[in-house]
């Protein structure tokens, strides 16, 4: 609900009033009473107390909006399919905490999806534009300096580098101007014993190393690449490699599927040798190498639901599905390795069920809520899934059938329209803060900004895998001499919808590599630099 | 400047003709300064400025007039002498006399003395801000009243005295460490408890004074006797660093001490307290947690005590996951000490479960808690523990849509080493899985399905159980049909669960009834679950390609020639 008042200096001031009380435990009032009708709204305003609602007072810069543009929707009404305008057809009566939260989320999203919520200019399909300018400003601000309360993310600072630079890159900004700063920042995070930590004096961690290396790849340039101590990195990776094929995230840390994905990314981007050092926990006299058993570890994380968990025997979770698929796609051609190691039909089923209507966005687990970040974690799995369900190579005789024995994927396995609607309508923070978010009424942050944009990017593009699997060595089930998937040739095209395209062309963001999550040219830049290079 | 004065500034031995000292007493400066009533200064700055003017009357006059050319001839001469004097005063004695020669020096002094200047100490004009600096609020100390300034001077003196005593104390500590002997008594130097207490009091006084005088915040650690011997390693980062955080003073200090103790691999009680201090400020700091674990193991501290402390921290930081890895490490370490004692093991398992129940009641789907829980079941071998199954059932009864609880149940039942084959995939049939377990679990899932048929959790569970047990999906055909009424009948069609329709499609496909399977999928795509139309249509295509391929199962491995 928006109440317009005259603000200082003649500018319009919009006061947003949170329609829903902050969640207090699970004791929500019945959902119907939460949404006052329009005629009730004005009356209710007087009765609202500060205890019930949170006021979000934002000054709206409305000078660039003409009075016509301030109309909430065109006269005929935008073209929004019914699917995105009402709760699902099949619904149970039983009320539990889960159903309460789900109903509340649907109610919070609907006004955004139907364009009834704000003064935004919507296109003929009921979508606002991507507020590039504000999102860019938000990300640039997040690159610092940051106030003291950010101490809570002190161990995640490298992530800020990646999230912000990746988001800026996708929105078309040239981030090479940050090269010097990245070089300086990365140096303080690198440890003499190899790898990057969260900051000066923090232990090396795979997650922070991944973020720093991708940030370096994003700014590019030999000077930046040279910051990385590859020999130290290799030694350190050897110390994390476990006998079961997986990787610990740091020395003494947990072993999980993030480790497997990140190690594959680092090994291939830096073209590290695969040999294990004799002091590696996985050293067995030279039979195993850094890649040995990774695929088996990934396989052990698939659950009875078909999704992937962080470690064997846990619940299937969207973030880990991406890690699993991207990891396998780096190790070998996804057409061969994904169906060999994972139950593909079950995985596709589970992934498809992550998308909800009317919200259009993805959830991370069964019976959990949609969240903008799963636009990437779950949505970003589809280019890889579609690659292994694409008719194999130009020599294939049957273009309806894939090498998996399953039918070729249609144009799109999931509803790109649904995801794009959720992102454009529900995930943009339209206040002067900018940035993208989990869902309406949540604060935007660099994490969500990056991954919502990544999801938008994958929904707007189509990736074709242009290479057939290269032959394996005798007796191999996965490549052991090199990560063959890293050499796969991917072609990217703008996704053209058979029906009308619901978003404006100006809102198309740049594509990123489906496994490395940075643009292809940056992947090629850093790999090309290190390829065939020994240790200096 | 007129050429005359310009020439005059050049030091030369015959600069002035000999003058009668008595004439200089009649300079205008002398007259003006004595005629002006001297006002009482209100601030320190004013007082100093007045003093300055008194000691350097020519310079003061020149500044007031706006240039030496505006001075009278006599005053100009006096000003030049004054300048020369101050210039040469900066030089060493030898070069001073070489520059001017004894005669010229004498003349200069004559002239200056003739002005009756009182003091020649102030060479620079006092200026606001730069002369005394600023206080803790950023105010110029020069703007203080005289009384307030005297007060400040007293405090500074007190602080200096404390600093001196504190240095003596620290020297004594060093001497005690080295085992030095006291010069007077000849006994080894001993720092007494009382002296330590005195030093504590002194330090808090010093911290208070430093804060009051300069706004300097002395960290808890820098001011503490305990951390005396550690030289902190401050945070290092170049100016252009990105996402740089303006660390609060306490945090920055604690981290600089952490860097120092980690560099020397010190594992001690004070380090343990330091980690607690940092964790309270930033519980997401993985480095601190790992260091804490290392300290506990090195000091051989009680694991149950640490777990008790951890419980509090976990309840206060529900979303934190470092806590759970820390707990994992603690249990790994503790387990061997109780492994051979079934009673202790059962007791420990119960304690852990009680805490897990408590924390899950706050956040029923917390991923990290559930991950820890499944690991714990495996570690402590809680497979046959009926309480574990009961507690999961309680959570499912509370919210039948809690998928985390369903997942844990699947793990608990089907990963039991008693009836599972190691290495089997989760979606693979396991011949070791007994029929009665499969039946029991299918029945359980079906009961729960009735409560809310559109709830996917028990559907996924049931399907998972059937696959694990190697059963045909068709064995639940009748049950599934209950949720699908008049399929394909435009008017009477009623779907109580889209998941039932999904499974029904699979059952028909399994039976080879492709047409019926296709109808289920078509209805899902066209009406009941349109968001997944792309997926349902792909499934329809799969049906066709399977039909073409014959009985061959999909998903078979590709063999590359």
Automatic annotation (TrEMBL), chain A:
Biological source species: Sordaria brevicollis
Needed co-factor(s): Zn(2+)
Catalytic activity: L-cysteinyl-[protein] + (2E,6E)-farnesyl diphosphate = S-(2E,6E)-farnesyl-L-cysteinyl-[protein] + diphosphate
Cofactor note (record): Binds 1 zinc ion per subunit.
UniProt cross-references to InterPro entries, sorted A to Z: FTB, PGGT1B-like, Prenyltrans, Terpenoid_cyclase/PrenylTrfase
Top EC category: transferase
Protein function: Catalyzes the transfer of a farnesyl moiety from farnesyl diphosphate to a cysteine at the fourth position from the C-terminus of several proteins. The beta subunit is responsible for peptide-binding.
Protein name: Protein farnesyltransferase subunit beta
Assigned EC number: 2.5.1.58
Annotated SUPFAM superfamilies: Terpenoid cyclases/Protein prenyltransferases (SSF48239)
UniProt family annotation: Belongs to the protein prenyltransferase subunit beta family.
Residue span, Prenyltransferase alpha-alpha toroid domain: 130-518
GO terms for biological process, alphabetical: prenylation
Pfam families recorded: Prenyltrans
CC terms in the record's Gene Ontology section: protein farnesyltransferase complex
Quaternary context: Heterodimer of an alpha and a beta subunit.
Keyword Oxidoreductase: no
Domain of life the protein comes from: Eukaryota
One GO MF term attached to the UniProt entry: protein farnesyltransferase activity
Keywords, ordered alphabetically: Metal-binding, Prenyltransferase, Repeat, Transferase, Zinc
TrEMBL record, chain B:
Name of the protein: Protein farnesyltransferase/geranylgeranyltransferase type-1 subunit alpha
GO terms of molecular function: CAAX-protein geranylgeranyltransferase activity; protein farnesyltransferase activity
Start-end of Low complexity biased regions: 1-14, 21-43
Principal EC category: transferase
PROSITE patterns, A to Z: PFTA
Gene3D superfamilies with a match to the protein in the record: Protein prenylyltransferase
Names of the cofactor(s): Mg(2+)
Stretches that traverse the bilayer: none
